[in-house]
Specification:
By secondary structure, the protein is an all-alpha fold. The chain has twelve helices and no strands. The chain has one domain. The relative contact order is 0.14.
Length: about 240
């Protein structure tokens, strides 16, 4: 029920459709039109450029999807109605999480056309199927992590713009912040590797290589559960 409500809420206005259209259009321009990032200039069949650029586009798409999750409920007063439903707080939060994640998945599915396009344009060899599948799995886990962060930040405020800004910053920091900190001279040849492991980018890069490591899966699962737990605690306070 909550999952369906989240789905309907996102597509109840033109903003939802525009967010997905802009996501697909921007990726298409970056991959096939702009000369500096066009994969047509690589000389061989690869979607590496797409999987390198997609996380940065998701940094803005996912907060756009999640910013209304709880913020709109607070603003319009429907959160009071949610509290009267025979649902546990965990059910409400997980419902909103999966509702938003389905929208992220809906935005990613059309990008499979890029893979078929590159495959058909390739004169020999074609795409590395294992690596491509692993990269798409990495994007799905990345989307799930960003979604859990966005749901949490939306539960902090009734202002959707503030929720978007906080979510975008938090996703940006967790994706690239630890990698940047690990490169500081003070951490060289010391704890730099372990600091880098705290960041999302490290685990996303591992999965994108087509190697499915249980440690990377546990990282994304733990990160999602952590922010969903914080969201539950936050709505209980309210």
């Amino acid at each position: 029920m909550i999952c369906k409500k989240e789905w309907r809420q996102f597509f109840s206005s033109l903003t939802g459709y525009l967010a997905i259209i802009i996501f697909l259009l921007l990726n298409g321009l970056l991959l096939f039109v702009f000369p500096d990032t066009s994969i047509l200039n690589f000389g061989y069949a690869t979607l590496g450029g797409f999987f390198a650029l997609a996380p940065w586009v998701l940094l803005f798409l996912v907060p756009t999807i999640t910013m209304r999750s709880f913020a709109d409920e607070y603003k319009t007063g429907t959160f009071e109605i949610l509290k009267t439903l025979p649902l546990q707080p965990s059910a409400i939060v997980w419902g909103k999480f999966f509702g938003s994640l389905l929208i992220v998945l809906l935005a990613l599915i059309p990008t499979i056309i890029y893979a078929f396009s590159i495959q058909s344009l390739s004169s020999a060899g074609g795409l590395d199927v294992g690596s491509t599948a692993g990269s798409y799995l990495g994007l799905l886990f990345l989307g799930a992590a960003f979604t859990s962060i966005g749901i949490f930040t939306s539960s902090l405020t009734q202002n959707t713009v503030v929720a978007f800004i906080i979510a975008a910053f938090a996703c940006f920091f967790l994706f690239t912040g630890f990698d940047a900190i690990s490169k500081l001279p003070v951490f060289t040849n010391g704890p730099d590797y372990y600091i880098e492991m705290l960041g999302i980018q490290f685990h996303y890069a591992n999965i994108s290589k087509g190697v499915i490591d249980i440690r990377d899966l546990l990282y994304f699962f733990s990160l999602c559960c952590f922010f969903i737990f914080l969201t539950q605690k936050n709505i209980l306070r309210k």
